[in-house]
Amino acid sequence: MPFSAELIEALRRIVGAANVITDPSEVRAAALDGRGRRQGAAFAVVRPGSTAETAAVMKAAAEAGLTVIAQGGNTSNVGGATPEPGLSEEEASSTLILQTGRMRRILSVDPVNNTVTVEAGAVLQAVQEAAAEHHRLFPLSLAAEGSCQIGGVIATNAGGVHVLRYGSARRMVLGLKIVLASGEVLDLMRSLRKDNAGYSLKELFIGSEGTLGIITEAVLTLEPEPRSIISGWTSLAGLEAVETLFSTLESVFGPGLTAFELIGRTPLESLREAAGLEPPIAAADWQVLFDVSDWKSAEGDPAALEEALMPLIENGTLTDAAVSQSDADREAFWRCRETIPPAVKRLGGNVKHDISVPRSGLVGFIRDTSAALKAAFPGVEPSIFGHYGDGNLHFNVGPKAAAFPHEEAIHRLVHDRVSAAGGSIAAEHGVGSLKTDELVRLKAPQEIAAMRSLKLAFDPDNRLNPGRVVRL
Q1: What pLDDT is recorded for position 1?
Q2: Is the bond preceding 139 in cis, omega lying within 30 degrees of 0?
Q3: In this predicted model, what pLDDT tens digit does every residue of 99-121 receive, in sequence order?
Q4: What DSSP character marks residue 428?
Q5: What pLDDT does 143 receive?
Q6: Are residues 292 and 404 in the same domain?
Q7: Residue stretches of the chain with pLDDT short of 50
Q8: How many domains does the chain divide into?
Q9: Which of 12, 82, 81, 80 is nearest to 48 (CA)?
């Protein structure tokens, strides 16, 4: 049943009149993806304030035959949180955007069990701050942490800069509460680290991108608060030197190596041009930003890190290095790193890839794929940065004028090489609607069939975020 006054009134009774948005300009804004490139359409936006309200909305949606798009902070880079562009008027009149932002409470912090229980609309930064109040760390950290919501973080299995030590979102989730397409509530809110009583159902919803159910609450693990964190910024003599630097730091500091970011010259030039920021050392083709935490003493010891780096400068592996001497230094280092994506966007953007390759194959992949791109598409320049420590790079291609006319062909070239290297074309941003066809092209038919079976088991009418992850 398409949009009707009766349906709107039913939704208002569930969530309150102020939380059903039908103003065309507001609905249109909610239907625009986070990158500002894909304009969808819907008849309304509904904002439930609890699991019970979400369940009631989903029951009403099921009875009315609606498509429901779950939306958190709308920071998706792959078209995963907004309706598809090009919907017919009839399709748009049957599409509802469900925003989780009213469900934002920190429900409890358990410092003995090292867990925090939150609603799905809680902003990542608020969860980090709640943990810090109890001298604990919620270690997931990414550029959008001031706006992305926990439900979306879990639904995309987000990674960020500390996966090297702490893992991605999946590793931090103990329990979930999910509203299914039917409106039934699946309560998996356990705070256990060991539970072998049947299938681990929660795992199905982590990374499912809102296609199997809507996450409304979560139990998350916390870590001890680091006694010290020191950052280093280094220039490599050549790309191959990244392997020597990583293995040296890992051998000296072990699990104390908590972040390791490789940054190419092109994104740093974008940073300088668009944001006026400079790294703490002279520009080079390849630089590395890293964190080392929890060693020697509670205060940390910059001299110990400098001592570890000195032989690498002496033997020519590194050409320069800077070590943070204060929290202000660390914040300045990381401000450069986290400002790269908005700086690139300000300059017009580029063709984006969120890929992972086994760490041992990254150097060869970067060199060979960069050469192939330049040969096939004259004028383009790879803009590479990201989480070398866990094998995940943002392998982007610009500038806009040279790259955008060949966007699909560039995607295919990069994805083919990722696949040949045993990698993934969706490392931490998810599949959304932008990579579904590529998933079918590159994955085994049996794997696609298994994913379709799961989708049909939980959402037989294909109402939840249809066309994302796997198309039916």
Answers
A1: 45
A2: no
A3: 999 999 999 999 999 999 999 99
A4: S
A5: 84
A6: yes
A7: 1, 297-298
A8: 3
A9: 12
Number of Cβ within 10 Å of residue 171's Cβ equals 13
Considering only the C-alpha atoms of the chain, give the largest distance between any 2 of them, rounded to a whole number of Å. 75
- Token readout for 230 is 């020191």
If asked whether residues 242 and 351 sit together in one domain, one would say: yes
For residues 258 and 253, give the distance between their C-alpha atoms in angstroms, rounded to a whole number: 10
Residue 319 falls inside a structural domain: yes
pLDDT tens-place string over residues 324-359 = 999 999 999 999 999 999 999 899 999 999 999 999
Size (the chain), residues: 472
Burial of 88 (0-12, 13-18, 19+ CB in 10 A): exposed
What's the confidence (pLDDT) of residue 295? 56
- Helices marked H in 123-201: 124-133, 150-155, 163-166, 169-172
Cα–Cα nearest to 324, from 234, 237, 226, 225: 234
Question: The tokens 């079918």 sit on which residue?
Answer: 440
Residue 341 and residue 460: Cα distance in Å, rounded? 38
Tell whether 234 is covered by a domain.
yes
Instruction: Give the DSSP H or E segment for 118.
Output: strand 115-119
User: Given 99, 133, 167, which residue is the final one in a domain?
Assistant: 99
Q: Does 200 fall in a domain?
A: yes
Sheet holding 44-46, edge to edge: 20-21, 44-46, 95-99, 67-71
Query: Given the structure tokens 């092209």, which residue do they identify?
Result: 441
- The helix/strand/coil state of 93 is coil
The residue to which tokens 């392998």 are assigned: 395
Q: Give the CA distances from residue 176 to residues 107, 166, 241, 376, in Å, rounded to whole numbers and listed in that order.
A: 13, 19, 42, 46
Do 390 and 159 meet the contact criterion of CB atoms below 8 Å apart? yes
Mind listing the pLDDT tens digit for each residue in 176-187? 999 999 999 999
Element (H, E) at 69: strand 67-71
Task: Calculate the CA 169 to chain-centre distance.
Answer: 9
Q: What is the pLDDT of residue 298?
A: 42
**Whether residues 207 and 296 fall in one domain:** no
Query: ω before 399 within 30° of 0 (cis)?
Result: yes
Whether residue 134 sits in one domain with residue 166: yes
pLDDT value of residue 2: 55
pLDDT for position 294: 81
* pTM of the complete model: 0.93
Q: Specify whether the CB–CB gap between 44 and 22 falls below 8 A.
A: yes
Domain hosting 13: range is 5-99
Amino acid 75: pLDDT: 86
